[in-house]
Structures
1.
Amino acid sequence: MPDARTAPWRRLPLTWLGLAPFLIFSLLFLILPTAHIVIGAFQDRSGAFTLQNLRDLNTGTIPSSYWVSIKISVASSALGCLIGFGMAAAVVFGAVPRAIKAPLLTFSGVASNFAGVPLAFAFLATFGPVGLVTLFLRNNFGIVLSRDLGFSILSFWGLTVTYLFFQIPLMILIITPALEGLKREWREAAEVLGASAVQYWRMVALPILFPSLLGTFALLFANAFGAVATAIALTGSALNIVPIQLFAQIRGDVLGNPNLGYAMAFGMIMVTAVANILYIWLRIRAERWLK
């Protein structure tokens, strides 16, 4: 007769069996590729250890590509936070009908994961040289986006606007629970003490939400900085950003240097890792107030 004290341990593998597909998927498509990139960043073409790949990150157009990528990530994150916060606040605090909340969150869940080639095609079909909006403004109002407004889908602001399609929904998904965590008693207490709506937001709500806002900004920055497929599919080689430079190094032709590409990818991993760690730390601090 089996010992009752050891039975739970015997059942443990079956209990964890449902996690096996996720663990295998993470190992094959996240952990092992990341380890391969990190190791390759410190190897030369013959496989010997070297730091030259990291030194080469400061040569040519690579530093400027990092700087452009950082600026695009900051711009799309800041605009995504601002617009997404306004939309989430309007839904949570009743400025728009409550019936919009469920469809908005559902759409945000889908749109926050809509990226890559489909997103690039959608924006090219809308704002490209022969896109729907481009032709509509040209034919009906005589406005040429590139000439009159200085806007091109293959430019800095073109890529930034494209990133907003998934940055704004991601902001809505993350900040909505934080807004719902603001207790009504805090606002009522502020009103009893004579505080106006502006004073309540400036002195009570925003200080409480600040860790959540800053953490979400860090997450959106990492999300934009690591968006590779969308940038390559949309701009090709028209914009000097890290994903384009990385693709040029690892695509396999004789002019490329795969190990330098690994070093560039390693730099991207470090930047996004710092942003994600900052987000996790700030999220923990924010949850202390909102519990």
Note: Residues 258-290 form the longest helix (33 residues).
2.
Amino acid sequence: MNVVLPQPYLLFLGDTTEPGYAKTAFGLRDWAPERCIGEFSLPGATVTTGLPFLSPAQARNSGAQAMVIGVANAGGFIPPAWIAALVEALESGLDLVAGMHARLRDIALLRETAARLGRRLIDVRVPPEGIPVGTGKRRTGKRLLTIGTDCALGKKYTALSLARAFQSRGVDATFRATGQTGILIAGGGIPMDAVVADFAAGAAELLTPDAPAAHWDVVEGQGALHHPAYAGVSLALLHGSQPDVIVVCHEPGRERVLGHPDYPVPGLRDTIELALRLGSRTSPRIRCAGISLNTGKLDADEAARVIASESDRLGLPVADPMRGGEAFDRLVDACLS
């Protein structure tokens, strides 16, 4: 799907207290900063993007055209406590854009207010019609998929960084978005977690069609293969995208699965082994090029130490794409080799 959205945006953070659930807002701030005017949140929110705090009316007066729900909470629902703020945005002259499982147009008050004011309700978490069942047939071109040890730890940022690095080297590469934030950044893609399960591998095939031999599709991963709730979407992407290369993403120090504290985060070796074993079903020559670490909570010296230590331990290139440098160059080399 290709999305033409009213821009620039006011980012809505709701009453969010978990930074991992605000990944849509952070993704837009980091990868489409020219489209983001400010942020708006409710009392009790502790998460901020660092952008100016603006009311919907102030944002509209500053040129904003839409308010984007910047939260991707567990279950993708729109809490009743948010409705008044969403109505306020409509009444201030802003369209609403959301990537939640819950649809804006299914909420009567929002639908009626938008109709009365001539405002738009835009849901981007809507898969295209006519998705086929996966075939498992090989396609031309090259593919890279980011795999995670958990949710919300850098799969999208890694894919975006690698696609940009490939392009900077003159390599024909396309970032393939599979979630609402990626779709908002790229202007197209398929929201994999909104696809009926039987068609999810087919959606991944549809997203990564036949391409010239030298072309790379860099596919945004979703979920995690060990995840107690979201392993299904991860496996469908792995089978359907048929990656030649995987890059495994991890956050040092994260010990428990986000939102599922009874489950430990799996180790990198276990994640690599499982991904290669399952991925070889449709991509027999699949390989792991290296590791992407999210070291945002570490200072520069500690991040460098962890990156070097993990590279020595695993015998693979390890880097934080957001820090760049020689470590990231080695990871890019390994992906393209």
Note: DSSP finds eleven helices and 13 strands in the chain.
3.
Amino acid sequence: MKRAFDFTACALFLLICWPVLLAIAIAIRLQSPGAAIFAQVRVGRGGHPFTCYKFRTMHTGTANVPTHQVEASSVTALGEYLRRFKVDEIPQLFNVLTGDMSLVGPRPCLPSQAALVEARRRLGVLAVLPGITGLAQSRGIDMSDPKRLAEVDAEYIRRQSFAGDLKLIWSTLRGHGVGVDRVVRDETSG
């Protein structure tokens, strides 16, 4: 039932909203050089790598590191807005359609985040598809605390239900976890 819901919801959203998504892609290209869609290898179910898609929110050439290790100056002006409201995540709907992700589940991490990958492996989190949103995100927990994140991801798996997933989607749409962006900010940028 989860897969059928994911597929149907994503297909309908993309069918209805494609003009808006095209406008966002054009705005990204007009604001800074580089592709509008950012592709990055992430860790999926079973620890297998997959390519995750997002709207590009950082300048081309930014280091391939977790967000909490990126300097705030790497984020474009439009990118800051897209990140604040999680609009940058929308291209991951294509990852859901292909079966690499689900709407709700643990956020996929980079293969280089060894402590998080190991903690997730130990707690059985890698047994499920990663998600666009999840319990940790609704609670404002990012990847800078691998142990805590893996524990909350494992809690999600233990309690996972269709009704619970709908509540997390609704929570995300209402703004829980929105605006939590842990890029590195220096003293002058606030």
Note: The helical segments are 2-31, 77-84, 92-98, 114-123, 135-138, 146-159, 162-173.
